[in-house]
Amino acid sequence: MTTTTDIANDLVALCKQGDFATPGEKYWADNVRSIEGMGDAPVSEGKEAARGKGEWWTSNHEIHSTGVEGPYVNGDQFIVRFTMDVTFKPTGQRMQMDETALYTLKDGKIVEERFFAAA
Amino acid sequence: MTTTTDIANDLVALCKQGDFATPGEKYWADNVRSIEGMGDAPVSEGKEAARGKGEWWTSNHEIHSTGVEGPYVNGDQFIVRFTMDVTFKPTGQRMQMDETALYTLKDGKIVEERFFAAA
What we know:
homodimer, alpha+beta, Nuclear Transport Factor 2, Chain: A
């Protein structure tokens, strides 16, 4: 049986390899809700919207380095911390990002991902 | 107005000073649910139960050092990471703990605290 810990560890292992696209393709539910920690359009619904958000992010940022810590598990949920040193290509601004993501699983798929911004 | 970020920052500041008791007394709701990441009795209900759990923990562990990272905020929720180097007094076993806590606020009080264990 695939447990929360199995999925969490697989997601973290992929991200540590710099692969931030495969975890979503493998584990997003078709109706996944993706909730940002800040910004104008914090909630997106569905796998297509989540994929589009990831593609926009990837094409607009140059990644200098990334850090992935976790996972931390409780029941059908887990938390991962992401730190990233990136340049936002449209402005050339370099930023140090620090956020955590809370994933909620149902039937082995991610039905919600909620991002928390460092305060 | 007191925001999630205000409460989160106050809780983190107190914990960074080594004061893990005051945040609960200040911010727990009377009916707070406290959910452990592991163990036999993962859910406790009410401020008295949460306080008792904290007092048991404090009296049974010698704390060598602690680390507090965060907070990370989204809406009425925030996440804090705790690392601790402790000795469990009954057995003398020294342990490095690493966990995150997800706090949910309602009307300026913590109605749920959910702990996630490093997997």
